[in-house]
Amino acid sequence: MSIFAEINYEMWQAKAIPPVHPTAQRRAKTAPVILMVWHDIVPAKKLVWFDTTVSEFEKQLQQMEKAGANPISLDTLASYLTTGSPVPPPGSVVLCFDDNTVGIYDYAAPRLQKRGWAFAVSAHTAYVGVPTSKKHNTYAMLKEMEQGGAVIVSQTHTHPPDLTMLNDVALTKEMRESKKRMEAGLGHPVPYITYPSGKWNQRVARVAAQAGYRLGLTEDHGFAETSPHLLAVHRYSTHKRFTEAIRVIQKFT
């Protein structure tokens, strides 16, 4: 395949995936939505650098309240990016938690539910309720969090370190197996996917779309409305860009 054919093929792929709605794109300059992502919330001692202690998390929530953050659900964001409505209020954020660790259930969910804040939890289905180096939430715990305002997101089946390195068969299996198991475990459709470690490319996004997902979450930095399309939505890492996220919220409220 010539370089020009490759470029044209990539352009076709991009067009085949639904774009962000023009209404949302225009509002990025005046009232953007940002997604903020955490991983595990731990009592005190961090096991990995991207853990957040309860004390740190509580301070972050207070900073968000002071800045005027308006947490919205991932469902609301998906509708907005897809159709242009409902238009979220200024300072809108989507609070995301990856890897389905028990610390999310024990420490994050109660604090968010107390505030009436929606949030999203991403889970890899091979380890729902299965301990590894950390404990993971069961389907019963995920359902309980749903009742308290959470949206549960697929994070593939086995959480491969880099989806872009998988062949088409393995990549398709990761997407479809996760969707099938998650929907069976929760008892309802699961239309969203989080790419493990934020690793994705156009092929990964296309396979996700073919598997039936209609929104994909990356760890690429930026406003939700400036995402390249619906299967590559930007998020702010709270481990690296929390202060920047607070500044954005303050600027637009």
Give an overview of the whole structure.
The protein starts with a helix and ends with a helix. The chain has a single domain, classed as TIM Barrel. The protein is globular. Helix 3 (54-67) packs parallel to helix 9 (238-251). It has helices spanning 3-16, 22-27, 54-67, 74-83, 102-115, 139-147, 168-186, 202-210, 238-251; strands at residues 34-38, 41-42, 52-53, 70-71, 92-97, 119-123, 150-154, 192-194, 215-217, 236-237. It is α/β, with parallel strands linked by helices. It is built from 9 helices and 10 strands. The strands form 3 sheets. Strands 1, 4, 5, 6, 7 and 10 form a 6-stranded parallel β-sheet that branches. A two-stranded parallel ribbon has the order 2-3. Strands 8-9 form a two-stranded parallel sheet.
Q: What is the average per-residue confidence, as pLDDT, rounded to a whole number?
A: 94
Name of the CATH homologous superfamily: Glycoside hydrolase/deacetylase
Structural class: alpha/beta
State the shape: globular
Distance between the termini: 50 Å
Find the CATH topology. Answer: TIM Barrel
Poorly predicted residue ranges: 1-14
**Number of helical regions:** 9
The major pleated sheet works out as: 6 strands, parallel
